[in-house]
Design goal:
Elements (H helix, E strand, L loop, with lengths): L9 H8 L3 H8 L7 H14 L5 H13 L7 E6 L1 H4 L7 H15 L3 E6 L7 H10 L2 E6 L17 E5 L9 E5 L1 H14 L5 E4 L2 H6 L3 H10 L18 H11 L3 E4 L6 H8 L9 E4 L10 E4 L2 H17 L11 E4 L2 E3 L9
Parallel strand pairs: 1-2, 1-3, 3-4, 4-5, 5-10, 6-7, 7-8, 8-9
Antiparallel strand pairs: 9-11
Length: about 350
C-alpha cells in the first residue's frame, strides 16, 4: 500500500517561523505590506520544508471570494491613458473591454479601479506608491492609442497582464484578439460570395496595433489565389484621400476590407468617388465600432476579451506570480463573423 505524506499547512509553517498565519499567507502572496526580507524568509522556508498550496482550499477561497462583495484588500488596477478616456463615442473599443473586465472582476470578488498612466507628473515611483496605497494586487494594462507605448511602471511587486500589443513590454503575459484568424475568416466569407478581387485598406497605425498579423493573414490568403487577382495592400494613412483614389481606380476591387482606426474617413472618401456599397464594392470591417453595427465584419468580442484578462490576472495572483515572467504567455480570443448589409453575392 502506498504511503501518503501529510501536507504541511500554513499554520505549521508559521509556527516554525514564529510568525502569524496571516503574515505567512501575505508573504507567500508577496504582499506589499510586508518587508521584502520577511517575504524572502517565508518563501525560502516554505521551499525548504516542502510546503505546497492546497488546491482544494484554493478553490474554496476563490468560491467564497466570488460570493462576497469586494473588500478593501481585493483591488485590481486598470491602467489606461487619460487621452483614451476622452475619445469620442464612436471609438469606445477600450470601454467595451473595460465593461467586461469590471463585470468579471466583480464576479470573482475583486473591485477594478482605473489609474491614468499619463496623469501630470506621473513617474514609476509615484504610480507604484499609489498602487501600494490602494492595496492593488494585480495590474491590467489596457490597450493604448499609440502602438509601442512606454509606460512608467515598476512591475516587480505586482501580478500583471497586458491586453493587446500596444504596450511595449517584451516579457509580459498578454490577452489579445486573434487578428490573424479574423482576417482569414473575412477573406473566406468574401470568397464564399464569389468575390475574387479583394483589397485591404490598412493604415500603418492599425497594422502596428495588430502586431502585423492582419496583413500577414491577408498576404497568406493571396497565395491561394491566382496572381492576376492579387491587389497590393493600401497602407497609407486614412486621411490620404489622394492615394485611395489612385489605388481604387487602378485596381478596382470587388470587395474591400477596412479597419476604421481613427474615423470613418475611408468610407467618406469612397462616397466622394461615387462608390456605393454593396452595389459597387462589398465592404467588410475588421472590427465593428459603435455606430457601424449594420456593416458586415468581425465582432471582436471585446467584453469577453476584458473578462478573460481578469481571469488570467487572478490566476497569476493566486499562483503568487509577480514581476516579469520567465516564460510569457499569450492568450488569444477568437472573433466571429457578423452578417451585415454591406457585402453582396457576386452575380
Amino acid at each position: 500500500m502506498a504511503a501518503f505524506s501529510v501536507r504541511l499547512t500554513q499554520i505549521e509553517l508559521a509556527r516554525q517561523l514564529g510568525l502569524s498565519q496571516a503574515t505567512v499567507s501575505r508573504a507567500l502572496k508577496g504582499s506589499l505590506l510586508l518587508p521584502k526580507d520577511t517575504i524572502r524568509r517565508v518563501r525560502e522556508a516554505a521551499e525548504a520544508s516542502g510546503y505546497r498550496p492546497d488546491p482544494g482550499l484554493a478553490s474554496l477561497v476563490a468560491y467564497r471570494k466570488s460570493r462576497n462583495p469586494p473588500g478593501k484588500g481585493q483591488c485590481l488596477a486598470w491602467l489606461m491613458s487619460k487621452y483614451q478616456a476622452d475619445l469620442p463615442p464612436h471609438r469606445t473599443y477600450p470601454e467595451h473591454i473595460l465593461d467586461g473586465a469590471r463585470q468579471r472582476a466583480h464576479q470573482l470578488g475583486y473591485r477594478l479601479e482605473t489609474f491614468f498612466t499619463d496623469a501630470p507628473d506621473m513617474t514609476p515611483q509615484r504610480l507604484s506608491r499609489m498602487l501600494a496605497y490602494r492595496r492593488v494586487e494585480g495590474i491590467i494594462l489596457a490597450p493604448h492609442v499609440s502602438p509601442g507605448t512606454e509606460l512608467p511602471l515598476i512591475l516587480d511587486d505586482f501580478s500583471t497582464v497586458a491586453i493587446g500589443h500596444t504596450v511595449h513590454i517584451q516579457r509580459i503575459d498578454r490577452v489579445a484578439h486573434n487578428h490573424f484568424e479574423s482576417m482569414l475568416i473575412v477573406c473566406s466569407k468574401l470568397r464564399e460570395r464569389g468575390l475574387r478581387r479583394i483589397g485591404l485598406g490598412l493604415p500603418p497605425h492599425s497594422d502596428m496595433r495588430s502586431h502585423g498579423l492582419w496583413k500577414a493573414a491577408f498576404l497568406l490568403d493571396q497565395t491561394t489565389t491566382p496572381k492576376g487577382r492579387h491587389i497590393p495592400v493600401l497602407g497609407t494613412e486614412e486621411t490620404d484621400a489622394v492615394s485611395l483614389r489612385a489605388w481604387f481606380t487602378r485596381w478596382r476591387p470587388d470587395a474591400l476590407i477596412l479597419h476604421l482606426a481613427n474615423s470613418g474617413a475611408r468610407l467618406e472618401q469612397l462616397k466622394a468617388l461615387g462608390v456605393r456599397w454593396p452595389e459597387d464594392v462589398s465592404v467588410a470591417l475588421l472590427s465593428l465600432p459603435d455606430g457601424y453595427e449594420h456593416f458586415s465584419g468581425i465582432n471582436e468580442r471585446t467584453e469577453e476579451l476584458g473578462a478573460f484578462s481578469v481571469e488570467a490576472l487572478v490566476s497569476r495572483i493566486q499562483n503568487n506570480q509577480r514581476g516579469v515572467p520567465e516564460l510569457p504567455r499569450m492568450h488569444m480570443i477568437e472573433g466571429s463573423w457578423q452578417e451585415g448589409t454591406t457585402c453582396r453575392e457576386r452575380k
